[in-house]
Amino acid sequence: MEGEKRYSKDEILVYIDTVTDRNRKEIEHHIGVLNEAHRETLKQIKEFYDTRFQRIEDKLDAHGRTLDSHTEMIGTLMTDVTEIKETLKQKLDRSEFIAFKQRLAL
Fold this sequence. Notes:
This protein has about 110 residues and is mainly α. The chain is built from 1 helix and no strands. It is rod-shaped, with a radius of gyration of 45 Å.
């Protein structure tokens, strides 16, 4: 072991700190790059789903307007049917009245 340089404890600790610091900086840089890539991916996913949700909301609004219109039409039809029923009922009552009147005339 002659000729080999022996390092002191302090020199070894300084070397370890230097290597560790360099590795830490490389790791921090790499994590920063990954973080930015991840952030961009999440942004694209959010934009995609925001667009889809907006289209879904637009369709739901259109369906709601259609249902409101149908509800109004059904209400009108129910009113018309009620009026028709009343008219038919009145006609039957009148025909019965005429028959009754004819029976009285005899």
